[in-house]
Amino acid sequence: MQHIIDLAQRQGYVTAAQVSDLGRASHTLGRLVADGRLVRASRGIYLPPASRFRPQTHALLVRATLDDDPFAVASHHSALALHGIALFDVDWGQVHLLDARTSSRIRDHRHWHVLRAADQVVEVDGYRVAGVPLALAQVAAQFGITAGLVAIDDALHRGCCTRDDVASVLASGRLRRGVVAARRAVELADERTESPGESRLRWILSNSPWHFEIQANVGGPGAGYRVDHLVEGRLVVEFDGAVKYDGPAGRSALLAEKAREDWIRERGFGFLRVVWSELDHPAQVQRRISRTLLQTPLRLP
Questions:
Q1: What's the order of all strands across the beta sheet hosting 235-240?
Q2: Where is the AbiEi antitoxin N-terminal domain (predicted)?
Q3: Which ranges in the chain are annotated with CATH 3.40.960.10?
Q4: Which CATH class for the 196-295 domain?
Q5: Beta bridge pairs of residue 121
Q6: Which of 79, 84, 94, 99 is deepest in the core (most CB within 10 A)?
């Protein structure tokens, strides 16, 4: 059984078909799960216990699913997971696939869609996946504006495609549902966005009456300080991911950020930080911004 564990550790997963090909009985996997040496992710797919973080686990599920079917093509967020695009608020437990041999259907952890002749299919690490523009349009249409905006922003930031590429998919009539939401996500997308938290915060600001600028330069040493969002020309609103303060360089980054914030405040700007957990409560974030704006005096040109 150690060979099965080694295989799971090496490729990140093991399937029932692979165990059968190795000549082991089907109950072998059940024993390994009972011993805590494997975790059942879905029917016929097993992961090492450490492989439970959702985005990485989903990518493993996609690879395992495609290993069992060389004719299938990963689509939606399943394709983007293999492309390495940031994802948020998608169904991690369900693998989406394109296949010319079947109609749309759902079975176990798999959601099949019809592969059409015009669909762009590319290879990523030997696996067939939908092209980035099609997969982005699918995610925005299937899971809504926020999920679409996070993915599109990251794809644009990485240079994987352009906004027009995604808009062309939507204009082609390839998708029948969720097109309005997907178009809105494309309109809001911005390649200057550097994290999913910034994307989510921008969506909250987009649903407010305030004017705001993205990645505005407020001056400062050297080329000046860029801020995530400058609201009404006087309030800096930034997403604080906190992770940048981790590790050996974390203290230096924290001190540099403190000096930056002090400089901005001394010039008369208001300053507000928003953390990830607050983004789940858009109305509360908007109230915080409103209160801080009222406390921040107008700045002279």
A1: 212-217, 226-231, 235-240, 270-275
A2: 4-49
A3: 196-295
A4: alpha beta
A5: 130
A6: 79
